[in-house]
Amino acid sequence: MSTLTIAWIALPLFVGFSIYLFPRLDRYLALGVALASAGYASYLFVAQSTLTLPLLDSFGVTLIADEMSAFFIVTNALVTSAVIIYCWHTNKTAFFFTQMIILHGCVNAAFVCADFISLYVALEVISIAAFLLIAYPRTNRSIWVGLRYLLISNVAMLFYLMGAGLVYQANYSFAYEGLSNAPIEAIALIFLGLLSKGGIFVSGLWLPLTHSESETPVSALLSGVVVKAGVFPLMRFALMVPEVDPIVRIFGVGTAVLGVGYAVFEKDTKRMLAFHTISQLGFVLAAPEVGGFYGLTHGLVKSALFLIAGTLPSRNLKELHHKPINTSIWIALVIASFSISGFPLLSGFGAKVLTMKNLLPWQVIGMNIAALGTAISFAKFIFLPHNPQGEGNVKPSFWLAMIILIGGLILANAVYYEAYTVKNIVKPLVTIALGWLAYFLIFKRLAIKLPRMLEQFDHLIGLMSLMLLLLFGMVFA
Amino acid sequence: MLEACIFATILCGFFGIILKKNLVMKIISMDVMSTGVIAYYVLIASRKGEALFTPIIPVENGIISHVENGAYSDPVPQAVILTAIVIGFSIQALMLVGVMKLARDHPTLESSEIEKHNTP
């Protein structure tokens, strides 16, 4: 088991560089790695045990592989393989697939490590690989978006590194458990790094531009799994160290509401999806015990939605109302939108019910508002005009990717089939009905453009210092 | 005292990232900040600046001589920060390559100008 885990972590890095040596096999090798991860995750599900693997005697460098990591690993595997298949017949070079597989490997590493330094290395390599993927078209805009991402995440990680040093000073170990007896500055600094990296609350406002201006497959990958590498450690902390659990939950609610608040007013498809990523990460954090399942459904649905949004004839929702889209694409779009709104039969429903059940009483109102906002904003997609001869250029590989992602959504119902009771089914239906009503009565006519001032680079860095103060206050309280 | 200097370095770097207009200056400020963090790890390793010796056991005439307990610095943070240094400079190299590409169309490299031209 331990050998298997280590081999599985090393595999993507090894294969990633081999792709460069055998550029003709790039797609097959990449797909092979993604399938290996899927296999490892299913092994973890079957084994039902927690593997703790200390790599270095007493300094806390450890790996922990349990069911929660298995959920995230399987998300990573499915999303990566869907994106590889989507790119199969494009003229992407071996370089693109190399970066994709290295990214896949580092995200996996972030999902199993249990000490601050392994996490730091994984997150930094994720930044580098993600930068190379974002800047792959080599246009001025893509390079700027990538640079902005790299600068912000690197500054955030420097704060994180200071926090990790303080934890070591207090415990002589880098293990996550050390957080409980670390000084408050350490908690604030580490949280600042991870909140910025994971796109949570106002420190996540770098995310909409980055995710919406990248190419379609890259946005699917970034929104589907990469941001979760920053969120996953927060969930681990909340479960290991009871003192930080309330902070994580507060950020969960705040993020969920902030994200939908922006999303309901957004008129650009990809930006709306990016704001939804912020809000859904809030749902993952709001109930850390069951966040794994929510992360799985969100990863699948969001990458499916980004891939679909890439095939639509326009990014502007206003223009889409005048250009009917192809009915087959519309059906895929509706299935995905229903899942994210929490409609029964799709696993988004089970995940929402499970999360709602594990909320603390003070979180319920905020999360219900966020769920309503989700229904409102996805009504924009569901009520798009469509006809069988509509526009939309689709490749056969697109449908194969959709089958993986949407099939995964339907199969994942099995994880929490207990959700199907009358009471549980009625509530999301009412939420969705209310959301649609609000959409037709209010939001369809509204044309408010929210200011994008906070998304400017200087403000994003400045917000970090404010967040640091806020975190100090929260930890101190 | 040492600690205060290190925090001042980190803060200088951080404010440089916000206040400097030129993109290259922003990247250099980031480097200043990461130098501060590296120095902080060295300080942690030296246990508040009291033990600065490397943890090598002194051998005189083939006999291991006595080492005072705790008089040497902790090797773990030093080993860890080495990784961070490597990552830091590779990220910087990558950023400077990106800046070189951007400089062709924006010779002044003012970040607000670049931002205005490249955001939708």
Automatic annotation (TrEMBL), chain A:
GO cellular component assignments: plasma membrane
Record keywords: Cell membrane, Membrane, Transmembrane, Transmembrane helix, Ubiquinone
Matches recorded under NCBIfam families: PRK07234.1-4
Record localization: Cell membrane; Membrane
Annotated NADH:quinone oxidoreductase/Mrp antiporter transmembrane domain residues: 115-376
Identification of the protein by name: NADH-Ubiquinone/plastoquinone (Complex I), various chains domain protein
Family the UniProt entry places it in: Belongs to the CPA3 antiporters (TC 2.A.63) subunit D family.
Originating species: Coleofasciculus chthonoplastes PCC 7420
Domain of life from the UniProt record: Bacteria
Presence of the UniProt keyword Glycosyltransferase in the record: no
Membrane association type: Multi-pass membrane protein
Automatic annotation (TrEMBL), chain B:
Cellular compartment(s): Cell membrane
InterPro entries, alphabetized: CPA3_antiporter_subunitC (IPR050601), NUOK/Mnh_C1-like (IPR039428)
Lipid bilayer topology: Multi-pass membrane protein
One Pfam family per UniProt: Oxidored_q2
GO cellular component, one term: plasma membrane
The keyword Disulfide bond belongs to this UniProt entry's keyword annotation: no
Keywords in alphabetical order: Cell membrane, Membrane, Transmembrane, Transmembrane helix, Ubiquinone
Transmembrane regions listed in the UniProt entry: 79-99
Keyword hit for Cell membrane: yes
Principal subcellular localization: membrane
PANTHER family per UniProt: ANTIPORTER SUBUNIT MNHC2-RELATED
NCBIfam families named among the record's database cross-references: PRK07375.1-5
Entry's family note: Belongs to the CPA3 antiporters (TC 2.A.63) subunit C family.
Entry protein name: NADH-ubiquinone/plastoquinone oxidoreductase chain 4L superfamily
